[in-house]
């Protein structure tokens, strides 16, 4: 049997494009390398000729894309001698920070909005032994507190304002380009703090930059130079149009200003004061993309459709990318013949309560008898 090298995470894989050196101790759980799944049934249901993919980031070690950023952020924190990390979180950042901190042997302090994070995420933060600080307020208030306390306490912030987070997250774009052999025409993402849409753009720019094209200042390592020092040559010639979708009750990019009381069933993007506000507008302009909003109803419908028609289970926030993409494919804003990638940011198991609440699958209870099972089969056979 032929052997292949064990996959040991995205820093090792993209070492030459990330700010680490040979001596750096890598804090990794084998994140990245997630499947790019081509949807087979939904394009037919839409009646459109479209090459539609989902990048299933829910298959990262802690069940969300946050692991891509966290492996870098915690690796650098440890390299710099930090004994503790801190973050504000709508859930997934805390789960990821908790896991990587335990791996590194340092302490994670996580600030979460009291009662507003999904069960699975809370379970993770608890299980990995982080210090959980529930605040009687929302994510934005937690974020403000984290920024303030980090000025006084010996803790490293691992929210996406930490530039190493975006460096790790840009690798998702690398993987997509490598698998498609090109950049997609459109890349659709759910937007909360807008770190991920920024990170993807950094990645696409690096892979399309031959060294002579200006690229976004969003890359912490290109800022000021206008060229990316990590780009050794163009790998592909084009970059996608970046499209960001927000939940309607939590949509500062659509409103054009900050939102003070964000509300949505998609708790992972219940953010009214995005930390990467300026970067994301730059991404929108540079890529010729747009922002739009989806109602909670549309989001849940897309989540259910994806699970029922394609066998892919993502959390509500993640389905926002597909909800928006389906609408823009239907109305022609995304043209037929296009290649489209939607990022599914987190796993459906993160939020079982919301899933069970909206499920319409028959849940039958019977006596343990053959005739009753047969009857259940007969009555529920499809077609
Ligand atoms: C963090 C998160 C988002 C939002 O990402 P940003 O970088 O804050 O825009 C979306 N979906 C899920 C599941 C998340 O955990």
Structure report:
The protein has helices at 10-13, 42-46, 66-79, 92-104, 119-127, 139-150, 163-169, 171-180, 195-208, 252-255, 277-287, 296-310, 316-330, 352-358, 370-380, and strands at 36-38, 51-56, 84-88, 107-113, 131-135, 156-157, 186-190, 241-247, 290-294, 339-344. Helix 4 (92-104) runs parallel beside helix 5, helix 7 (163-169) crosses helix 9 and helix 8 crosses helix 9. The chain has 383 residues and is α/β, with parallel strands linked by helices. 39% of the residues lie in helices and 13% in strands. The relative contact order is 0.14. The radius of gyration is 21 Å and the shape is globular. The strands form 2 sheets. A 6-stranded mixed beta sheet has the order 1-2-10-7-8-9, sandwiched between helices. Strands 5-4-3-6 form a 4-stranded parallel beta sheet. Residues 64, 66, 92, 160, 190-196, 268-269, 315, 317-318, 345-346 line the site of pyridoxal-5'-phosphate. Pyridoxal-5'-phosphate (PLP) binds at residues 64, 66, 92, 160, 190-196, 268-269, 315, 317-318, 345-346.
Give a short synopsis of this structure.
Helix content is 39%, strand content 13%.
> What gyration radius follows from the Cα positions, in whole Å?
21 Å
In this entry the ligands are:
pyridoxal-5'-phosphate
* Largest β-sheet summary: 6 strands, mixed
Major sheet: arrangement of strands: 1-2-10-7-8-9
Strand-residue proportion: 5-15%
Task: Count the DSSP helices.
Answer: 15
Distance between the termini: 44 Å
Helices and strands, in order, run as HEHEHEHEHEHEHHEHEHHEHHEHH
Helix content: 25-40%
What's the mean pLDDT score? 93
Structural class: alpha/beta
List unreliable stretches of 5+ residues. 211-232
Beta strands, count = 10
Basic shape: globular
């Amino acid at each position: 049997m032929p052997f292949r090298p064990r996959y040991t995470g995205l820093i090792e894989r993209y070492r030459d494009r990330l700010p680490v050196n040979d001596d750096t101790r890598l804090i990794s759980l084998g994140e990245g390398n997630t499947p790019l799944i081509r949807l087979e049934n939904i394009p037919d249901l839409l009646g459109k000729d479209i090459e539609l993919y989902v990048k299933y980031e829910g298959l990262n070690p802690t069940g969300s894309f946050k692991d891509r950023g966290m492996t870098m952020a915690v690796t650098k924190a440890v390299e710099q001698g930090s004994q503790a990390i801190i973050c504000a979180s709508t859930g997934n950042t805390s789960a990821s920070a908790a896991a990587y901190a335990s791996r590194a042997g340092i302490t994670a302090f996580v600030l979460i909005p009291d009662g507003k994070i999904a069960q699975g995420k809370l379970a993770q933060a608890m299980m990995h032994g982080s210090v959980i600080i529930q605040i009687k307020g929302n994510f934005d208030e937690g974020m403000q507190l984290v920024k303030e306390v980090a000025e006084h306490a010996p803790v490293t912030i691992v929210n996406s304002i930490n530039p190493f987070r975006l460096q790790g997250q840009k690798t998702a774009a690398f993987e997509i380009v490598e698998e498609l052999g090109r950049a997609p025409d459109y890349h659709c993402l759910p937007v909360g703090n807008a770190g991920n849409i920024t990170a993807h753009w950094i990645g696409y720019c690096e892979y399309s930059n031959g060294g002579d094209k200006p690229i976004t200042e969003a890359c912490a390592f290109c800022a000021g130079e206008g060229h990316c020092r990590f780009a050794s040559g163009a790998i592909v010639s084009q970059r996608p149009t970046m499209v960001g979708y927000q939940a309607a009750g939590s949509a500062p990019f659509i409103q054009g200003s900050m939102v003070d009381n964000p509300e949505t069933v998609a708790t992972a993007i219940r953010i009214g004061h995005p930390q990467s506000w300026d970067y994301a507008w730059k991404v929108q302009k540079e890529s010729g993309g747009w922002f739009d909003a989806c109602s909670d109803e549309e989001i849940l419908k897309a989540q259910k459709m994806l699970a029922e028609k394609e066998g892919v289970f993502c959390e509500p926030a993640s389905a926002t990318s597909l909800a928006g993409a389906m609408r823009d494919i239907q109305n022609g804003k995304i043209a037929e013949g296009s290649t489209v990638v939607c990022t599914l940011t987190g796993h459906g198991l993160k939020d079982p309560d919301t899933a069970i609440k909206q499920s319409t699958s028959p849940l039958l209870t019977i006596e343990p008898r053959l005739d009753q099972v047969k009857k259940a089969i007969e009555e529920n056979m499809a077609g």
